[in-house]
Write a structure and sequence with these properties.
heterodimer, A: mainly alpha, Rna Polymerase Sigma Factor, Chain: A, Arc Repressor Mutant, subunit A, 2 domains, globular, B: mainly alpha, 0% strand
Chain lengths: 191, 329
């Protein structure tokens, strides 16, 4: 909890400066959260370019909120994650193809044939998991990604989702149950 | 962090591992994104700050309001309402138009539209009869003669409507009321034309008398209107009733022999006329007396018929239309 308090204090200072459009404070905010947001987006959309678009759109909306005297009061990280989550949910609703083709993966450019085969298999598994994730509700998907992929605590997830910890636990339980059913149904369909 | 999961939940969480790994973000992408973000922030910071809502309210109250701007829908509604008012006004104005007025052609056009919209035969017959009657009213109202070009045109329109109505009646059964009305209209026109001929002849006689006595023809000028106005304001049934009453009154003092002769003389004419024999109810007797002078005028039967017909026509038509002129004749 101390980490959260320290982070909130620092974010408060950054936010106070960012509202005056201080370039240094804004640069610090970008350095601090853009990569985490990129990873959060990529785990759900599976596409580097879309993950970059998510980051860019999140920070653009953040600037617009600052200009309108809105935006976060003290929880900057939670605010940014919520914007990113909303953007990703919009993409899912529009039915945008999110999995990146294997031949466009830059990290696999210099790998051997055996590694490529393994990467293809992993890519198929990732696509299956993302498909099941996208079948969950927005909140169930959000709690699963934040808690089990981003590694956040219930308190951090509750802060981002603006819920209490008990609600997060219940939501997490339902999400895992539904995800298990989806995976079982998917395996049964493939068999 | 001390969450306890069931084996199934743990298995599900482990199934998420394929998407746990994320490819390294390209440094140039990071720098490019950061530069774009800071540039955008600088542009936004240079934009003028919007005024407060309170100041905006003050400005709105103090500044003069723009002129009323009507939406497209409002303009369309106003335009449609104006069109409807104009159209209905022109329809009302054209309803009473006479052949010598500019709206008369519009009136005829409206009648054509009504005929076009009438679907049933019965409705079309009624309209044709209405319009034929309207032509007669126009003919009377303007005091037209059949020799006038305008009068001839009005009568031609009348005959067209009568012909259409007759044709439709021939194709349709069980329309006794319309058939009776058609016959009444035809009788009305005959009487109208007969009155005109009598008037013309009386005017010529008056002119001869006036030339002889050198008296001014005062009351004769109004006679065409006065002869036509009663029939124009009355329905055909009403126009025939006074005739029958008058005819009966005029024939009452006469001997039964005259009536018998009258009936004897009429019987061949009546049997020759199919319309009169087909007339139902009380109408079968009434046209016998009304049509008689018309036939006598047109056929000019010789002998005793002339004396009887001329006397009856003078007494009927002259006393009905021109009561002051009958003693002179």
């Amino acid at each position: 909890m101390n980490d959260i308090d320290n982070q909130t204090f620092t974010d408060k200072q950054l936010l106070a400066q960012a509202k005056d459009f201080d370039q240094e404070a804004l640069g610090t905010i970008y350095d601090k959260y853009s990569t985490a947001l990129y990873r959060y987006a990529y785990r759900q959309v599976g596409n580097t370019q879309m993950a970059e678009d998510c980051v860019a759109e999140t920070f653009t909306r953040f600037l617009n909120a600052l200009q309108a005297n809105k935006g976060p009061k003290k929880h900057l990280r939670a605010y940014l994650y919520r914007i990113a989550h909303n953007w990703i949910s919009d993409q899912f609703r529009r039915g945008v193809q999110h999995t990146e083709p294997i031949d466009e993966r830059e990290d696999l450019a210099d790998t051997s044939k055996k590694s490529v085969e393994k990467a293809v298999q992993t890519n198929i598994q990732s696509e299956t998991v993302r498909k099941h994730l996208s079948s969950l509700t927005d909140q169930q998907r959000q709690v699963v990604v934040l808690k089990h992929l981003e590694g956040m605590s219930n308190a951090e997830v509750a802060e981002i989702m603006e819920k209490n910890v008990g609600s997060v636990k219940a939501l997490n339980s339902r999400a895992l149950n539904n995800l298990r059913k989806l995976m079982a149904a998917g395996e049964a369909a493939t068999v | 962090m001390n969450d306890q999961y069931t084996p199934e939940e743990k298995e599900t969480i482990e199934a998420l591992q394929p998407i746990q790994d994320v490819p390294e973000r390209a440094p140039e992408q990071f720098e490019r994104g950061k530069a774009a973000f800071l540039t955008e922030a600088k542009q936004i910071s240079n934009q003028p700050v919007s005024i407060s809502p309170f100041q905006r309210l003050i400005n709105r109250l103090t500044q003069p309001q723009p002129k009323l701007r009507l939406s497209t829908l409002t303009i369309a509604i106003i335009f449609t309402a104006a069109l409807m008012v104009t159209f209905s006004g022109s329809v009302v104005a054209a309803r009473n138009a006479l052949p010598d007025q500019p709206l008369y052609s519009y009136k005829l056009w409206l009648e054509d539209q009504r005929l076009t919209l009438a679907a049933r035969n019965e409705a079309q017959i009624d309209l044709h009869l209405d319009f034929a009657e309207e032509r007669l009213h126009e003919f009377q109202a303007l005091g037209l003669n059949s020799s006038d070009p305008l009068g001839a045109q009005v009568l031609a329109d009348y005959y067209v409507h009568i012909a259409h109505a007759s044709q439709l009646l021939a194709d349709t059964n069980n329309l006794v009321e319309q058939k009776t009305r058609l016959q009444e209209l035809e009788a009305l026109l005959d009487k109208l034309l007969t009155n005109q001929r009598i008037q013309d002849s009386s005017e010529s006689d008056n002119n001869g008398v006036l030339e002889a006595t050198q008296e001014p023809p005062g009351g004769d000028e109004a006679s065409p209107q006065s002869t036509l106005s009663p029939s124009s304001t009355q329905t055909p049934e009403e126009t025939e009733d006074p005739e029958t009453e008058h005819g009966s009154e005029s024939q009452e003092p006469e001997d039964n022999e005259n009536t018998e002769e009258h009936e004897d003389n009429e019987s061949p004419e009546d049997t020759d006329d199919p319309e009169e024999t087909n007339e139902p109810g009380s109408n079968t007797e009434e046209p016998e007396e009304t049509d008689e002078p018309d036939d006598s005028e047109e056929t000019e039967e010789p002998g005793s018929d002339d004396s009887h017909d001329s006397g009856s026509s003078d007494s009927e038509d002259g006393s009905e239309a021109l009561p002051d002129e009958t003693p002179e004749n």
